[in-house]
Structure formats: structure tokens, C-alpha cells
Amino acid sequence: MSPDLVGLIGILALFALLALRVPVAFAMFVVGLAGVSVLSSPANAFNLLASETFTLASSAELIVVPLFILMGNVATASGMSRRLYDAAYAIIGSIRGGLASATIVGCGGFAALCGSSVASALTMGRVSLAEMERFNYDPRLSTGAVAAGGTLGILIPPSTGFVVYAILTQQSIGRLFLAGVLPGIMLLLLFILLITALSIMRPSYGPTGPHRSLREKSVALMGAIPIIGIVLLTIGGIYVGFFSPVEAAAVGAGLVIVFSVVARQLTVKSFYHAVRDTIATTATVMLILISAHLLNPFLALSRIPHEVATLLTGLDIGPTGILALILLCYLVLGLFLEGFAMLVLTMPIFFPVVVALGFDPIWFGVLVVLTLEMGLISPPVGVNVFIVKSVAPNVPLRDIFAGVMPFWLVMLVAVILLVLFPQIALFLPNTMIGG
Amino acid sequence: MLAFLRTNVDRLIGLSSLLGSAALVLVTCVVLVDVIGRYFGAPLRGAQDIGQMSMVIIVFGGMAYCDRIKGHIAVDIFENAFPPRLNHAIDIAVAMLGAAIFSAIAWKVIQSAQLSLMLNLSTNIINLPKAWFQWALAGFSILTALTMALRAVEIILAGPEVHGEQGREVL
Amino acid sequence: LGETLSLAHFVAPAHVVTASVVEPLSEGVEADSNGDLTIQVYPGGELGAGPMEQYVRAVQGVADITWGLSGYTSSQFPKSMIVEMPGAIPEGMTGYDMLWNAFDEHLADEFPGTRPLALWVSEPSIFIMRDREIRSPEDLQGLRIRVSGSVPGALVEAFGATPVQMPAGEMYNALQTGLIEGIVTGASAVNDFKLDEVANSYTVGAPLGHIMFYLVMNEERYEGLSEEHRAILDEHTGRGLSQKGEEGWNASAERTLRALRDNPDNTVIDLTEEEIATFTEIADPLREKLIEEMGAEDVLTAMTGN
Ligand code: NA
Ligand code: NA
Questions:
Q1: Which InterPro entries does this one have (chain A) (predicted)?
Q2: By C-alpha distance, which of A414, A435, A417, A413 is closest to A426?
């Protein structure tokens, strides 16, 4: 059997295992181990298992993962995240569809705090869905907004998506984070535009919220000031060279803990639960990363990345055509695959092609993360949709998927805008830290 | 017998996640002390070494707990389309597969620890021996394998009727 | 009957290791064996990410041959890495000769489970700085300097700076944002990691030592080769390949330095004898102390051959 045939069988087996509800990490472990066993030797496969497991579990760079998750979890446990949402709500809640728009802003704010889309959707879902239901919002709009808004978590820095992309492709995390800011804000504004348009067309979709006085608005804003300050200090600290990403994450987590304790909003018990949730989420993420690193040698040995790269670069459709094909690949894969695993699976295949075509790797990173976000809400497998379903059990799954479709289309518009105007992503990194 | 095992494995899972949590708090403190110390010209020696090796405890200390709360991401869109017997069989197979994977990790990492001793491997600044942390990783993996094996037995005994019950009880 | 050996490394294919070591080796054995013995290269960590496990990968046979930096796992190579110490290589000697001179008697036990195919050192390390001119140890007080390995770490500390360890891929960003003020490594790294985009001052001539590299092969795999293939492999490895490595690094460094000097945005500082002495005063006692602590005076003697 030729190596690429083994590779192809392996990829098909991976899809089959995923469809059979085998956890993503386990499926990649099995296919990686079996594939390396066939293409090299079982001894090598199991030696790789040991060395990749320990290498990744002791990675100095990946300490950012648990630290940023801890920061988000403590902020949620102590109510700091909710106050951030309250402030957004007080300020724009009275305009048409305002609560849904406020939810999007809250998601954006939470995204600036937390690197994970799942955590963003889960947290914002808990906070906002009940409020929107109270004001008779159509569940399609409210769940759609939370599921889509939650995906901002991996576009607006800090972002687990960018961190993984940077590590896989040896790009600078700082530049990628900066590159995500403007597209994140753009997408946030497009979402709000969409909500407003939908609410104007169908007033029952998003009725207007109550008016708040300037005083009420400032009170709500005051409540959110500590968390806004911490976010600015943490993210800003990376860019001015005060902290490395790991240090920034630790400082952010430390400050959130200190503020929560001082404000008497964190008990020993709720703190321990936040920490334990953090290590559980870390275990989930790291196990997927480890298993994907076992799949990588298998793909390398099968020579498939090499052949796909040759095939794609050889197509006579011009660089833009190839880029479109790659993005289309992500959209199709995104229908089935969890975004994070997809990134690790495909990057060894596509990144060399993209670099060879002369595209900016930072800009490509933003495009990829944007398409990953689309995968998070697209049926049949939309992780964020399932998360929202878990906090809104009364809303049928098909309604949530119907609700997210307009948001998915708006994200497609954002992808097209970003392809047409790469400056949207590259302006900040190029002006703030030079070409 | 099974209840006895369940109680004690759950205790070990609690201990394991407590160790992982402690390591996370330790890393946060170590990095903070290092940053503050650097500001005053006295960074913490070996902060990076401690961070790297604690990461092993954070990641694998939480592994058994992560499995206990069904924290591993799986694609369950076809779950309702499958007959209950198939779902039951899949649940058993997945738990047994997980037990096999984590047993393999433990077995190979223990072997690698022998190699680390032979090569005298330790961290660069404060010489934390690599083998210690490989043994820790292996220990946490054995516990995770045990958790999954136990779950396989419990699912077999429960039968296909009770499928779909979520295991999110707090330990 | 063709035999294919896998060679894994963790850097991009364009890195200096490809032209100076990997290609001479693979082209040499392929030509001499009439294509019967070939080497399949897996660059960029395809067979396993990260530089830390490179030696272990060869021992376990994940790849037959691996390339790595001794400094990443300093604790494994205390005696070999004497060659990295500042001032250890006397005028007129080469690093690879010193390593092979002492190999059989002193260093072989630092390479269990493998057969070293090449051992060599980089060009002398220099200061690669952003917005800082280094002419004496005083200029380094309180600065954060990225090093690879424990020996340069101790040296930079002795000069009064704070050593920072980080993956090579992060150097660019760290220098850019000011997380570190400078880097101690060979000039060839400037090219390999595009540091010239972010650094602007380079100091040449200070005793900063060298960086040691190894290319090792799984021992059983080597023993299992046919006698003919072993002979061909021997022909293209050892001192000869080590020399190619060291000369390749030196040539790359020279090219890089020339380009840096030609660029008016950069300052390249060539230290005077007096300025060098201010560094040597600190570096020499440190080297002697480190060697004495190890009780490895005889290793250095064997290396220099007198
Ligand atoms: Na974010
Ligand atoms: Na999807």
C-alpha cells in the first residue's frame, strides 16, 4: 500500500470515528498511532506518543492556555464579566434590538478577556438569554446572537485560536493579536447592523429595551471599570513589551483574583471551582493538541500534505483562486469539525502553500480564524450552537441553527471584505510594530 | 465492590485535580513574583523551569477529572439517529479506548523516564530532574485509565436503557 | 534493496543546516551508493515538534538521524559543552577538532544509544541588540538578554545582565516589543530568524563562546546497516561532515555580517583589544571556575591536544 493511500484511509477512518461519537482527541490518537505504526513502525508510534505527550505538556509557551482560562473563569465566578455586560446593556439596551446588540457588545467585551469561543458563548448565554426572554425577544434572535457573538472570543485578542495558529506556523502571537482587533470590531459592528436591520424588518424579533438615565449608565459603566482596566493593562502590557504573553496572562489572572477578593465577590469555594474548571478545560484542550501532534507525523509520513500542496499550487487558477479554494476547504471542514482540531489538522497542509504564494501569514491567520468561527456555528456540528442549546434547553436546535444563519452569512461578508482589504487586519500590526 | 471502587477512584480523582489546581495557583504566583521581581531588578531564578514542569501537573492532574465530567469534545450530532444499542456499544467502546490510550501513555512515559535518567536530563537553570515529572504524568495517566475502565464496567452493567444520562455530578 | 534513512530536524528548510550538513550528507551517500542508500529529510518538526526531544528521538528511533543543539539539554552534555565556553577555543583551532580530539576518551559517554555523525560549533556568538550599544560589561547592566543554554546564561549573568530563555521563534517578537534588549548567539541566526528587521546594533569580538550542535544516528540502526553502507556513511560523516557544518555556519555568519555592515541603518561595533579585555576579565575566571567545578581540566587538555 502506498503511503498516500494509507494517509487517505487514515483520514477517512478519522471521519468515521468522529461520526461514531469518539472524542476528537481519542480519534486522533487512534488514527495517528495506527498510521505511524503502518508507515514507520509500532515502536516508533508509541515512542512518539511518549515524547509528544511530555513535550506539549511541559511547553513553556502553552502555559498561557490555563492562565487565560483561569482569568476568564474567576472573572465569571466573581461577577466581573456580568458587570461588563451590564454596562454594555445600560448604554445601548434601549435602541431597536438593543438587548441583542448589547449581548454582542458583551460578547466582544468578554472576548477581550477570554481566549475561548466556547467559554464566551457559555458565559454570555447564561447572563443574557434570560434577560432577553424577559423582554420578549424572539429566541431565534437571542440564541443566534449569543452563538455568533461568542465566536468573537477567538477573533478579538486574547485568542486561543491565534495562539495555536502562531505556534503551528511560527508566527508572532503579538502581531496576530493586533491583527485580530480591527476585524473583530468590524465583525461586531456588522453583527449589530444585522440585528438592527432584522429588528426593523420584524419588530417582534427584537423589541426595544428600557431607557436608562445618564446617571444609571455611568453607574453601570463604573461597575465595569476594574475589569476594563485589567483587560487594557494585560493586553496593552504585551504590546509595549512589559510582559510576555505568559506573564500578561498571569498578571491578568492575578489582578482579577485580587479585585474579586477585595470586593468580597470570591469565596474559597467558588475560587476552587474556577480553578478546577480551568484545569479540566486545559486538559480538554491540551489532549486535543497532543493527539493532533501525533497525527502530524502520520500526515508527514504519508506525504499527503506535500501532495495536496503540490496539487493546489499547481492549479492554474491564480493565487486568489487557490486562496479561495483553501478558505472553501475550511468552510466545508467547518461543517463537521470542531474549529480548534481543524486548525491543528490542516495547518501543516495549507500554511506552506499560502507562504509559497506570497500571502501575508498574519493576514491568512485572521482569515483562517474567521472561517473557524463560521464552523463553530454552522450545522451539523456547531459547537457554539450546542453550548447555547445547553443553556437554553427550551429552544429547539433547528430554531437556533435558523437563528445563526444570518450571522453566518454576515461572517462570509466579513471574510470577503478581509480578502478585498487586507489592511483591515494588517494596519495595526504593521503600524504598531513595524513591517 | 463496584461502589467501593467508585468511591475510592473518585477520591483519587479529587486528589489529582487538587494537585493540578495547586500547580496552577503555584504557576500564577511564580510568574507574578518573577514579573514583580524583575521590576525591582531581582527576577525569580528558574521561574521558567518551574512553570514548564508545573504545566505537566496542571494538564495531567486535571485529566481524570476532565473525563469524569465528560469534558472531552465529541461530535454527537448523530447520537439521536443511532439505535440505543449502538449508542450503548459506542459508550463502552469509547471508555475502553480511553483506558487503553492512557495506559499506553503511562507505559511509554515511564520508559522515557528511564531514558531521562540515563541521559541525566534536567531543566537548564535550576536542574529540576525531568524524570520526576514524567513519573507524575504517568501516575495521573494511570488514574485516568482507571477512571475510564471503571466507567466502561458501569455502562456495561447499567445496560442500554440508561443511555444519555449526563455524568456531571460534582465530586 | 534500497535503504532509506530518515533525518529529522526542527527548523525551516531554508536554515543553514540544510546547505551545510544535510545536503552534503544525503547527496554524498546517495552518489556513492548509486542511489541505494538515501536520506529522507523531515524538516520543521514534522516527525515531532520542538527542539528539546531531538536526541531522545534518535535514541528511540523515531527518526534514524536527528540534528539538535546541545544547549537545549545542557545537563546531558556538561563535558562536550566546554567547547561552548568563552575563550575555550584557542587561536588557530576549530571547535569540531576539539570535540573529536576528546571524543573517544572523554565525551563518548555523553552520547549513549547513538552514534554521533557530526559534532561542531557555530561561529563566535555576538551581541544582537535593539537600541543599545554594547562596548563593555557596564553597558549590559540590568538588560534582559536571550541566551540558549546554561553556559551563556551564567556568562551573561556574570556580566550583570539577566539571562532569558525562550524558543528561537519568539526572539523576533521579544526584541521588537522590548521584552528583551538583546540576544547572545551567532550572527547566522540573524538571517535564520529575520532578526535584522528588529535589531539595529551588533557587537563583535566579545568572548561570548560558541553554540554546539550534534547530528546523531540511532546506534542499532547504524549497526544494522550492511558493511558497505556503513563504510559509505563513515566516509561522509565524522570530522569531515563536522568541518562542513562549522565552515557553513562561519560562511553564513560572514555573509550576514557583511550585509549588516553594508546597511546604514545598523551599527556594527568591532571591539578594540582594550574593550575586549573588559569582558575577558570576567569571562576567563568564569570558564576556569565552571571547568574546575566539573573537575574537567583534563577534558579541555584533551580537546586542545596539549
Ligand atoms: Na478573545
Ligand atoms: Na460547524
A1: DctM, TRAP_DctM
A2: A435
Residue-wise pLDDT for B45-61, tens only, equals: 888 889 999 999 999 99
Assess B37–A contact: CB distance below 8 Å, yes or no.
Answer: no
Interface contact flag, C197 A435, Cβ < 8 Å: yes
Minimal Cβ distance to A174: which of C60, C166, C173: C173
Q: How far is the CA of A150 from the centre of ligand 1 (A)?
A: 9
Chain position carrying cell 465569571? A76
pTM of the model: 0.83
B85: which 3 cell numbers? 444499542
Is residue C162 less than 8 Å (CB to CB) from chain B?
yes
Q: Check whether C47 has a pLDDT greater than 90.
A: no
CA C175 vs. chain centroid, Å, equals 21
Positive/negative CA dihedral, C247, C249, C255, C258: negative
Side-chain-side CA neighbours of C62 within 13 Å: the count stands at 30
Using CA atoms, how far apart are residues C306 and C300, in angstroms rounded to an integer?
9
Taking alpha carbons only, the member of C59, C51, C92 closest to residue C218 is: C59
Average pLDDT of the residues of chain C? 92
Q: In angstroms, rounded to a whole number, what is the distance separating the alpha carbons of residues B168 and A168?
A: 33
- The conformation of residue C22, written as its DSSP 8-state character, comes to I
Pick the closest to residue B62 from B71, B51, B53 (CA basis): B71
How many whole angstroms separate alpha carbon C177 and alpha carbon C163?
A: 17
Q: A144 C-alpha to center of ligand 2: Å? A: 14
Residues 64-123 of B with CB under 8 A from A: 65-66, 69, 71-79, 87, 90, 93-94, 97-98, 101, 104-105, 108-109, 111-112
Q: What residues does each domain of chain B span? A: 2-162
User: Which runs of consecutive H residues, i.e. helices, occur in A40-97?
Assistant: 42-57, 64-77, 80-92
C55 → closest Cβ in B119, B125, B127: B119
Distance in angstroms (rounded) separating the CA atoms of residues A357 and A323: 9
Q: Quick one: average pLDDT of C50-60?
A: 90
- Measured in Å, residue A19 CA sits from the centre of ligand 2 at 13
Confidence of residue B72 (pLDDT cuts 50, 70, 90): confident
Q: Find all residues with CB under 8 Å of A357, minimum gap 6, and list them.
A: A313, A319, A322, A323
Segment (H or E) for C204? strand C201-204
- Which residues of A fall within a CB distance of 8 Å from B163? none
Instruction: Return the biggest CA–CA distance within chain C.
Output: 63
Which residues from chain A sit within 8 angstroms of residue B52, using beta carbons?
Answer: 58-60, 63
At A167, is the pLDDT very low, low, confident or very high (cuts 50, 70, 90)? Answer: low
Does the structure show a pLDDT above 60 at A338? Answer: no
User: In the predicted model, is pLDDT for residue B171 greater than 60?
Assistant: no
Q: Which residue has the cell 556580566?
A: C159
Ligand in closest contact with the CA of A159: 1
Contact map slice: C 40-79 vs B, CB within 8 A: 55-56, 59-60, 71-76
> Has the ipTM of the complex gone over 0.90?
no
Count of pairs with CB atoms under 8 A, one residue in A, one in C: 76
Amino acid at position A37, single letter: S
Ligand nearest to the CA of A149: 1
User: Out of A51, A59, A170, whose CB is closest to C48?
Assistant: A51
Residue A123's pLDDT band, with cuts at 50, 70 and 90, is: low
Report yes or no: C279 at the B interface, CB cutoff 8 Å: no
The more confident residue out of B154 and B124 is B154
Question: Per the omega criterion (within 30 degrees of 0), is the bond before C51 cis?
Answer: no
**Residues whose CB falls within 8 Å of the CB of residue B168, separated by 6 or more in sequence, listed in order:** B69, B70
Residues C91-147: pLDDT tens digits?
899 999 999 999 999 999 999 999 999 999 999 999 999 999 999 999 999 888 999
> Which residues have C-beta within 8 Å of that of residue A264, sequence separation ≥ 6?
none
Out of A5-9, B166-170, C73-77, which region has the weakest mean confidence (pLDDT)? Answer: B166-170
